[in-house]
Please model this.
Amino acid sequence: MGTKPGDEAREARWRGWMASAQEGDAQAYERLLRELLPVLRAFVARRLGDPTAAEDVVQTTLLSIHRARHTYRPERPFGPWWRAIARHAVIDAARARARRPREVSLEDFELPSRDELPGEREELSPDLARALAELPPRQREAVELLHVHGLSVAEAAHRAGVTPGALKVRAHRGYRALRLRLGKATR
Amino acid sequence: MRPEASERLIQDLARDVQPVIRVPRLRVVGGLVAMVGAAAVALTVLASEGLRENLGSLLRTTPGFTATLAGLVLGALGGVAAALGASIPGRAGVERGGLTLLAVAALLALVAGPLLLLWQASGASPPFARDLDCLRGAWLTGFAPAAVVAWFVVRAAPHRPGLALGLGIAGAVALGALVRATTCPFAGTRHLLLGHAMAPLLAAVVVAPILVWLRRRRGPRS
Model:
């Protein structure tokens, strides 16, 4: 399969930016990830066939690229390196979907919609704020990042310093506990 | 999901970026494993009473023994190559090559070797305790090269760490089992299978899960 001259130039540019990013150059890294993003989106969407789930996989891939950036060798092409990471993320997502018949979503937990939950904790209803405060810290953090601050799973996982799977588990437990507490409060 | 969240994530990641120490080249790690393995082999041969006296005649006259030894050679090369390839994104070619060697190795050492030995009725096995001695010896000899491979796998970014560690440990212990088979005075199908050919497999099954557990403990909190 032949490569276009534009592809070669892009590959050389990305390789240079990645090498600079490994030296700690934040600008080069941001440029690289921004240029990569649309290509990565197309790569993931083509393989996953589910546009809604694709953005989560894109974010998981970005995190994996970040965590594995020390494994890139500048003398080797950049394309196969990032594509292998993206392919693994797609495989993991497809496996996770196959294991779970239905994605755990916020709607499963009968919580108020995001519009009803403002960004600041002080503006939450007193019952919900109290119930949230009573949650174990890790569950509370997961619920707040996802539902109160409106972050995606991958982004919230990055903020919390955990894997997206672990964050979903914490959020799931948090929602269950909230539902129990709110149910008791309104009874 | 929200595309703008990806943009925000990129900003966060760029803000978070720190200089990193690159993993060494695969050929450098492979060379290091070979050097450490050679030192372990030399120590084992010196510590034992040298190579078995009838090694040459066994290789010529006993195809089952030869097949087992050939399987262990290929297993050592294939296991280490597959582990190193599986640890770096984009090196699937190295991983596939290693896995192919490993499949041939398993066929030779675990199937063809024992069947040929049975067919040739190659003598009685020693007591079971001797099987365990050889198993332990293979593990001890393979320990140092296995540690080098495990260090690299843990430091790199394998998609499936357990598998990569298992492959690397199997490869390193195959080297130990190979040396042990050339210095051990015993023959017999059961002894060759349990004490030598199965040593890499057993090591991988026992040690890899422990290393994966340790890796998880030192990884990001979950």
Notes: Chain A is about 70% helix and 0% strand.
